[in-house]
Amino acid sequence: MEKGTLLYEGKAKKIYETNDQRIVWIEYKDSATAFNGEKKASITGKGRLNNEITSLLFSKIQELGIDSHFIKKVSETEQLVKKVEIIPLETVVRNISAGSFAKRLGVEEGSPLVRPIVEFYLKDDVLGDPLLTEDHIEVLQLAGKDDVEILKEKALKVNEVLSDLFKELGIRLVDFKLEFGKDQDGHILLADEISPDTCRLWDIQTNEKLDKDVFRRDLGNLTDAYENILARLGGQSVCT
Ligand code: C5P
């Protein structure tokens, strides 16, 4: 497989063509951004950590019956994935109050929700990724009603599998964001990444935050937190 022309550069990843039009080459960058790009930094090792963690998580959830775009890791910072057309929705699942939910609704951070909930946000940096209702999704023709049901079902299934997996590692899965895309046959596949950039992960014993909130809220060293997650998942530490 050959790495071809750069197709797209986002805040955290670059996407390249390959010599197979059904496959793209993803490179994870060392950049960290928060608050819709207002806070920025370059953090050496972050690209490797997110690539390793995402590759491990996509492989583990594949074994448990959840298909994704992931094909294989090709280097410390790169992976091959199936080419999909991204559905312009950020699908968020929450188990415990935190982040924008805690702020918007005045629910104390750390309060467990009576059941997991799914929220959708418009993937639009200019608008600051606003929260959407299902009516918004319908009238703006962002996704069909059937597809929205599939996204909810898949997101809750991922939540079950990931919550169990992290619990075994002594980590509470507080919330996370997923993205989905359609492959050339129109099948909806889980896409993008699952990493401490896109999940809130708290140590079960201490409630220590092991995710991007460390960067957002200046709580300590981001790579230490991400290395902790990678080590618990059975991956290699950057420092070895
Ligand atoms: O900020 P908020 O509480 O809405 O975030 C919910 C979850 O979605 C968090 O785990 C956060 O890391 C993730 N998220 C993300 N990308 C965004 C917005 C939120 O990965 N653009």
Automatic annotation (TrEMBL):
Q: Which Gene3D superfamilies match?
A: ATP-grasp fold, B domain, Phosphorylase Kinase, domain 1
Keywords from UniProt, A to Z, are: ATP-binding, Ligase, Nucleotide-binding, Purine biosynthesis
Q: Which GO terms describe its molecular function?
A: ATP binding; phosphoribosylaminoimidazolesuccinocarboxamide synthase activity
Q: Where is the SAICAR synthetase/ADE2 N-terminal domain?
A: 6-232
* An annotated GO BP: 'de novo' IMP biosynthetic process
Q: Which pathway does it take part in?
A: Purine metabolism; IMP biosynthesis via de novo pathway; 5-amino-1-(5-phospho-D-ribosyl)imidazole-4-carboxamide from 5-amino-1-(5-phospho-D-ribosyl)imidazole-4-carboxylate: step 1/2
Keyword check for Cell membrane = no
The catalytic activity of this protein is classed by the Enzyme Commission as: 6.3.2.6
Catalytic function, reaction form: 5-amino-1-(5-phospho-D-ribosyl)imidazole-4-carboxylate + L-aspartate + ATP = (2S)-2-[5-amino-1-(5-phospho-beta-D-ribosyl)imidazole-4-carboxamido]succinate + ADP + phosphate + 2 H(+)
In its keyword annotation, does this UniProt entry include Nucleotide-binding?
yes
The UniProt entry, under HAMAP family, shows:
SAICAR_synth
Family named by the database record: Belongs to the SAICAR synthetase family.
Name-wise, this protein is Phosphoribosylaminoimidazole-succinocarboxamide synthase
